[in-house]
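Exercise 3.2. Students should predict the tertiary structure of the chain below and write it as structure tokens, then compare their answer with the key that follows.

Predict this chain's 3D structure.
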Amino acid sequence: MAATISYKDRNLIAVIGDEDSITGLLLAGIGDVNEQQKKSFLVVDAKTPVATIEAAFQDFTERREIAILLINQHVAEKIRPTVDRYNQAFPALVEIPSKDHPYDPSKDSILKRVQKLFGD
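Answer key:
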């Protein structure tokens, strides 16, 4: 019998982003390292392989304790097909800007789905 996942079990925010974004969010209290030494954040720089970003995205979207996944929009662009395929309610996926890359609503897959839903 499959175990049901309750929204009450989801109490963490995960982040995939650049060093400045991660640092700010960690200072604000977002970030966790569990007993198995699994982090709820991934720092991405120019040398980070796309496969590492995709693996972190997959891990964060499958973990039952994560309620929200924040990802810098410019990082999401590197794995856009994977982000576009993601359609689960939990964890909620939110694309955020970074210091060097402003938010572009035309690239946000979630916003595109909402606009399609409302016929815009």
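Discussion points: The chain has a mean pLDDT of 88. The beta strands are 12-17, 41-43, 66-72, 92-96.
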